[in-house]
Amino acid sequence: MVKATALRATLAAAILVSGATATACDSDNVDTSGSTTSTAMAPLIPPTPSTAAETTPTEWPHIGDEVRDGPFAFVVISLSGSRYAGDPNNEYLQSRAQGLYLMFDVQVSNISSAPQTFHAANQTLHYRDRVFAVDKRAALWADSERVPINPGNTAAVELAVDCPSDIVWWDETGYHTSATSLVLRGTDRSRRVAVDIQYMGEGE
User: What is the pTM for the complete model shown?
Assistant: First the structure.
């Protein structure tokens, strides 16, 4: 089991998205033509203590920790920022954010004894008293909207949350987020579990 540690000054080094360079990151944000030719995702840098309006409880599960709710076990592998979400190989199967996307790569395992279906719409992003929904269209393009999983199997899903500029923003140092937790739910009736996205876990 992964153990949680103190707040990282930067999340970028730990969750670099393969192939996302500074040039790609920059071009993804300056393009206002409406073209979806650039779909590179860049890692997120959490706010420093001086700019964070609030921090989440350190006893919460963190990125890299396994959490369980209902029939599923979840592990949030990484998060990143992007203007586009969906199929990176097909510009017609992509969605463009109204603001910027906060992207999550999540492993979902069926820990029950029967087939189950993961629903992207059951997952939410939280900041203080604000709740943000997963983009259903982007999840559809990424084959993550509804994912049947047999007992013992694990699926990789991608969740994209369209966020305003105070939740996800970009500057010359990269993408940043002030969001505090991703709330995961196995079913629409299960209890839910929150993952603190301001902290990283670290192995022993």
Answer: 0.71
